[in-house]
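Q: What structure does this chain adopt?
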Amino acid sequence: MSVTCHFKETPQKTNNIKQLMKLYLFSILISLFGLVTCQTKSIQTISESRIEDTITKPNETKIYILKKQKNNSDFDYSKLNDIDAYYGILSKHRESDDISSAFEPLKGKYNYYQFIATFKGKSYNDGGPTLIKDFNDILII
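A:
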């Protein structure tokens, strides 16, 4: 016993197949477009200030100055999340790197702003008289 199936090609079936092919090609094109446009762009420096810091005295309001503005950037979370391990007493980082390198931006997809306030403050002196030194507060957004 043999079974034979015959499919009759109708204009409606042909039209449905064409629509499916168009939809399939369109979805491929959208996917490729998404891959191309979602790639991370290189860091773009908008501004870097060379302005002298205004050093405020103890108990004065700090003055934050915009030092860097960059696009297509992000924080270096690997350093910031464990900053004491990188730059503390038991540092696992190279001595040539100072703590300010933890605040430098990496390639990313955000706008990056770095503000610095320089101020005079009291410093620990291991039992000796209190020292007044310059300190920097770094604010990154």
